Amino acid sequence: MKKVLVTGGTGLVGQALQDIIKNEQPNDEEWFFAGSKDADLTNLVATQALFEKVKPTHVIHLAAMVGGLFHNMNNNLDFLRNNLLINDHVLQTAHELGCTKVVSCLSTCIFPDNTSYPIDETMVHNGPPHVSNYGYSYAKRLIDIQNHAYHDKYGHLYTSVIPCNIFGPHDNYKPDVSHVIPGMINRMHKLRTEQPEIPESEKVFTVYGSGKPLRQFIYSLDLAKLMIWVLRHYNSVEPIVLSVDESAEVTIYEVAEAIAKAFNFKGKLICDTSKADGQYKKTASNAKLRSLLPDFKFTDFEEAMQASVLWYTTNYDQARN
Ligand code: NAP
Ligand code: GDP
């Protein structure tokens, strides 16, 4: 019987994993989803206590200090230190307790800023990341270095995945912290529900920045399925990009339009170019994933957006606002 510990099991991706596993009910795996209330993983003793309690054979390591462009720009030191601590505690404790496999989470936003496109798995360490999120990026890049070091010294299969931008139910909608999709969903909901005396056709929704940057977005439930596949079947230390196709890349303005459509918003969209754009693009190739799993079907972006907005409006009171 495999015993799988998911760190960060209460977050956006963790909740999606919970959903998939609840539906699947695997009979040869026992899953434990840990949040920060179960253990503060910046604390080594708390990390060891969690591992001693759960006794995992396998780990999906999601826990991290996570946030959108504006949160990263203001907190590079905290992103660096918290994530360095969490990652070292989780990987070293997994090693000490004899875990067979660990799948950790990197991100396409940790790739070099100055690069050729599309970006692939071999390019993670090729040059400095975008200046807005260097703390997060260098902490994440070191997971890959540490995985290789465990492999060289002990032969461990500690590996990592590289998702593109993620969205879905249970996201973090806190205005100063959130990524673009949950941030815009929160602001759109407020705009529509506040000041009901103003006709919606006269309301104006503000897209931060120029709206021109490009992003690939994966639905959290698709990512959860792919991560479970990685846990069960991907047996290499080298990272693997888990992203939608390059052709599915959209501009931030198109994202705003999809959110407006999902809310049936009747007003206007404008761009506030006084706000930062961040990295212009980070187009990643999913060729490696496609070669191993050619038939995987990603959920249509607009359909996933409709489901995400519906989740938010239905679960507003419990959402991380
Ligand atoms: P999230 O919704 O913000 O969830 C973060 C999770 O980490 C939560 O379960 C949180 O626990 C836990 N956590 C944070 N600090 C912790 C600490 N000190 N000790 C223990 N647990 C802690 O993040 P997510 O979007 O699901 O991200 C999951 C993984 O995907 C992360 O590694 C992230 O870097 C990566 N990723 C995310 C994106 C994206 O667009 N969201 C894109 C690429 C990669 P509580 O909620 O219980 O406090
Ligand atoms: P990134 O993909 O790592 O850069 O991070 P985000 O998910 O925060 O996306 C940032 C991009 O979305 C930038 O181009 C922002 O200018 C733009 N954006 C537009 N509106 C918002 C918003 O409400 N919140 C955030 N975080 N970004 C926004």
From TrEMBL:
Superkingdom field: Eukaryota
Keyword Isomerase among record annotations = yes
Q: Which CDD domains does the record match to this protein?
A: GDP_FS_SDR_e
Q: What is its EC number?
A: 1.1.1.271
Keywords from the named record: Isomerase, NADP, Oxidoreductase
Q: Which residues cross the membrane?
A: none
Q: For this protein, what is any one GO molecular function term?
A: isomerase activity
Q: State the top-level EC class.
A: oxidoreductase
Record flagged with keyword Isomerase: yes
- Pfam families to which the protein is assigned, alphabetical: Epimerase
UniProt domain NAD-dependent epimerase/dehydratase: residue ranges: 4-238
Q: Where does this protein act, in terms of pathway?
A: Nucleotide-sugar biosynthesis; GDP-L-fucose biosynthesis via de novo pathway; GDP-L-fucose from GDP-alpha-D-mannose: step 2/2
Q: Which GO terms describe its biological process?
A: 'de novo' GDP-L-fucose biosynthetic process
SUPFAM superfamilies reported for this sequence: NAD(P)-binding Rossmann-fold domains
Describe its function: Catalyzes the two-step NADP-dependent conversion of GDP-4-dehydro-6-deoxy-D-mannose to GDP-fucose, involving an epimerase and a reductase reaction.
Q: Sorted alphabetically, which PANTHER family does this protein's record hold?
A: GDP-L-FUCOSE SYNTHASE (PTHR43238:SF1)
The family note in this entry says: Belongs to the NAD(P)-dependent epimerase/dehydratase family. Fucose synthase subfamily.
This chain belongs to the protein called GDP-L-fucose synthase
Native source species:
Drosophila hydei (Fruit fly)
